[in-house]
């Protein structure tokens, strides 16, 4: 649908900009012209492969609903390692089912936290292509660059808001055009509000969270599901819900978040039933309290002690504690599993 215009820069950087035209010769930045109107909404894409950075812009036909996401705290940084081909020579049939060799994965909310760590796991398990989608440009760009540098995998970053259905379908189409496939979606984009009593919950805040966590899940699943159905090869979709979709957290009031994650679980089951006929498996991961930037804020210190006390394993989950489950759900190791809500919570929901 979009032809790419490639710009060679003095710094050896390559900038490719998509435009609604069939082909165009390479030009310098100084003389570059495009048919993209200044007022047209654009989704920036940054791509890393073999040490080369590529920037491009894909145009979307409608206004994007992008909005800032406050980034509290920081994550413990972990690096990814490349999967060496020699592994394949010695692997047993059981372990080979867990490999994601040559698969292409989209990870929303992959700029940091659980999404970024699962993106790392996808590369370590053999994926050849990773598309990170996030609203935070700096985080997404850094994540894509480092992941590609560490593993040699072709990683793209799209600054896109999961609430924007047209932008989502356009970017997912671009992923399929670029890699020629789409096998896995990990839908990790999400926000949390807590310590807001239901009787005081501002209406616009409630709607915003539902829009990101629930509507965003639907729009992302739909855009990827359409491509997986079209390919005829099926795929695996993993929605990151929360144990808050199954229990009410204590002591903080967070009715909206809890309701949103219950919706994600039920949506996952519904669409799993619908799309089984296409070979698309859809499962949810429901984490307990995780030690991510979302929770690494001083205001939550006192509550965190209560969370740990109420968790049988007496700790928060590490930022990479979902990785192995994500690989399992993405891989043929779980080929008979769909519509499942996998609680991974240190036992919190047992009490
Ligand atoms: N951290 C926990 O304790 C915990 C527990 C249960 C479930 N979860 C869920 O796991 C997922 C990831 O959590 P995390 O701790 O890594 O959070 P995080 O805030 O560290 O990461 C979430 C990412 O999603 C992105 N994002 C937010 N809104 C977006 C939007 N509208 N469009 C695109 N990207 C958007 C953010 O920019 C961020 O990079 C969330 O869905 C969260 O609800 C987290």
CATH architecture: 3-Layer(aba) Sandwich
CATH topology: Rossmann fold
Largest sheet: 11 strands, mixed
Number of helices: 9
The first-to-last residue Cα distance is 53 Å
Name the structural class. alpha/beta
User: How many independent structural domains?
Assistant: 1
**Which range does the strand content fall in?**
15-25%
Bin the helical content: 25-40%
Low-confidence stretches: 1-40, 62-68
In short:
With 351 residues, the protein is of the alpha/beta class. Helices cover 33% and strands 19% of the residues.
Question: What key phrases describe this protein's structure?
Answer:
351 residues; alpha/beta; Rossmann fold; 11-stranded mixed beta sheet; 9 helices; disordered N terminus; binds nicotinamide-adenine-dinucleotide
Overview of the structural elements:
The protein is globular. It starts with a strand and ends in a 7-residue tail after the last strand. The protein is α/β, with parallel strands linked by helices. 33% of the residues lie in helices and 19% in strands. Nicotinamide-adenine-dinucleotide binds at residues 69, 108-109, 111-115, 134-136, 139, 161-163, 188-192, 212, 216, 240, 242, 287, 289-290, 292-295.
Walk me through the topology:
Elements: E1 3-8, E2 14-19, E3 42-49, E4 52-59, H1 87-90, H2 93-96, E5 104-108, H3 113-124, E6 129-134, H4 137-151, E7 154-159, H5 165-179, E8 184-187, H6 203-231, E9 235-240, H7 255-275, E10 280-287, H8 301-309, H9 323-330, E11 341-344
Parallel strand pairs: 2-4, 5-6, 5-8, 6-7, 8-9, 9-10, 10-11
Antiparallel strand pairs: 1-2, 3-4, 3-7
Helix pairs in contact: 3-9, 5-6, 6-7
The structure holds nicotinamide-adenine-dinucleotide (NAD).
Residues 69, 108-109, 111-115, 134-136, 139, 161-163, 188-192, 212, 216, 240, 242, 287, 289-290, 292-295 line the site of nicotinamide-adenine-dinucleotide.
């Amino acid at each position: 649908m979009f032809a790419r215009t490639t710009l060679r820069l003095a710094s050896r950087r390559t900038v490719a900009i998509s435009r609604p035209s069939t082909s165009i010769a390479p030009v310098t930045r100084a003389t570059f012209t495009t048919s993209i109107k200044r007022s047209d909404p654009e989704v920036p894409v940054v791509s890393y492969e073999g040490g080369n950075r590529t920037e491009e812009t894909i145009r979307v036909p409608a206004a994007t609903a992008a909005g800032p996401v406050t980034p509290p705290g920081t994550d413990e940084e972990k690096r990814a390692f490349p999967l060496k081909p020699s592994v394949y020579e010695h692997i047993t049939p059981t372990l080979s089912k867990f490999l994601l060799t040559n698969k292409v994965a989209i990870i929303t909310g992959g700029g940091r936290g659980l999404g970024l760590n699962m993106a790392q796991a996808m590369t370590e398990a053999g994926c050849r292509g990773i598309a990170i989608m996030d609203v935070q440009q700096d985080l997404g760009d850094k994540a894509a660059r480092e992941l590609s540098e560490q593993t040699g995998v072709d990683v793209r970053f799209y600054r896109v808001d999961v609430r924007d259905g047209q932008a989502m379908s356009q970017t997912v189409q671009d992923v399929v055009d670029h890699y020629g496939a789409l096998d896995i979606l990990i839908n990790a984009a999400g926000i949390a509000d807590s310590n807001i009593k239901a009787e005081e919950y501002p209406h616009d805040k409630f709607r915003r969270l539902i829009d990101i966590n629930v509507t965003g899940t639907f729009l992302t699943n739909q855009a990827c599901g359409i491509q997986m159905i079209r390919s005829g090869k099926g795929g695996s979709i993993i929605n990151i819900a929360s144990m808050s979709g199954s229990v009410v957290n204590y002591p903080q009031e967070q009715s909206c978040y809890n309701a949103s994650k219950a919706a994600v679980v039920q949506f996952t089951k519904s669409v799993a039933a619908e799309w089984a006929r296409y070979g698309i498996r859809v499962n949810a991961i429901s984490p307990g309290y995780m030690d991510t930037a979302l929770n690494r804020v001083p205001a939550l210190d006192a509550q965190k002690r209560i969370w740990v006390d109420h968790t049988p394993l007496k700790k928060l989950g590490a930022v990479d504690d979902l990785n192995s489950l994500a690989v399992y759900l993405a891989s043929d190791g779980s080929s008979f599993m769909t519509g499942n809500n996998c609680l991974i919570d240190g036992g919190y929901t047992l009490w």
